[in-house]
Amino acid sequence: MNDIFDKIYKDKGPLGKWADQAEGYFVFPKLEGNISNRMKFNGKEVITWSVNDYLGLANHPEVRKVDAEAAKKWGSAYPMGARMMSGHTELHEKLQNELASFVNKEAAYLLNFGYQGILSTIDALVGKNDVIVYDVDAHACIIDGVRLHLGKRFTYKHNDVKSIELNLERATKITEQTGGGILLISEGVFGMRGEQGKLKEIVALKEKYNFRLLVDDAHGFGTLGETGAGAGEEQGVQDQIDVYFATFAKSMASTGAFIAGDKEIMDYMKYNMRSQMFAKSLQMTLVEGALKRLEMIRTMPELKAKLWENVNALQNGLRENGFDIGTTSSCVTPVYLHGSIPEAMALVKDLRENFGIFCSIVVYPVIPKGLILLRLIPTASHTLEDINETLNAFSAIREKLENGTYKKLAKMAMEAAE
Ligand SMILES: Cc1ncc(COP(=O)(O)O)c(C=O)c1O
């Protein structure tokens, strides 16, 4: 008989195997100081491009004040228990009502974390006779939600309307036999490449196919649409999203999440989402903090305006300097370069140590071999000076990548490690 730990001793997994070289620097880095445009990494100031604090609320004095006062008033325990048992309060209800009205839905339900929340949302919406159709580039939380499904599921090519239709056709044939329905899942904004989900085109398919649409709008909430209600509002199809999901982990700069939709559906969800029924309620400091953040999003349009001023300055600047930023249609700003993984590591080290730029790096197997993706998240707290400094740094590192500097550095690093 084998020990289940044997495989762990042998193989640390696709990411874990890099831990010796990467931990503390490329993964699990410690960014220190207040969350803002400039933080500290390894004791040095860096321009921070890797924090999803889109509206700059994380360290806003009014937010910090409300968070501190709420923590003093409630502590971190209140309320104890799951919503259904002993964890329900007036303020939870108030926040739900305000969120529902903000995203133009009849009702909303709070989730204690986005990841578990959406997983259970998917689980609660489908039964074994139903079919799920979802984007192949979906976030891990959607994939894990789909994993719980006992019926058929089909992925469609990323944001490809033809492929969506083809899979809706397949799903329709199956549901005609099983008597089930179809759940289509898209993201409002795909967080890696920044493209908005093709919600308008998906919604148009409702004319021809019978399905319900669940949208994970983690990156769209607060950043897109005239009022900040997200990708559905931006594309004019918010009313056609059957279940709308957003997390507090990005524009709201907090923890928690919610779903919104018709009241009857939300009433069903609150009795059927296992990760919420059997887990502690969102704590009061987070609820009060979220009420404050939502009020600021509603009443301070200048936050979103500043965010977009920065997004446009950064994305236009990168394009004008000849960088490939793909097909982003959101704040998420990817920069695609060509090089090997060791070159990418040398490049990021140079960016952090010598240019004071901290951004996320994505390489194979998340993206195709030979590509390096540097992912920048502009926020309302960045300045034009941050952007100009970054554009100059990017031009410098591109030159070094092209003239082989990082290849040499990577080779030297490898020889030193042997
Ligand atoms: C697209 C998307 N969905 C869901 C989540 C999970 O949300 P949370 O961090 O609240 O668990 C994230 C990450 O925050 C995300 O990027």
UniProtKB/TrEMBL annotation:
Cofactor(s) required for function per UniProt: pyridoxal 5'-phosphate
Membrane-traversing stretches: none
Keywords: Transferase
Coiled coil regions, renumbered to chain: none
Pfam family, one: Aminotran_1_2
SUPFAM superfamilies: PLP-dependent transferases (SSF53383)
Presence of keyword Transferase: yes
Domain named Aminotransferase class I/classII large: residues: 45-393
Protein name: 8-amino-7-oxononanoate synthase
Source organism per UniProt: Psychroflexus planctonicus
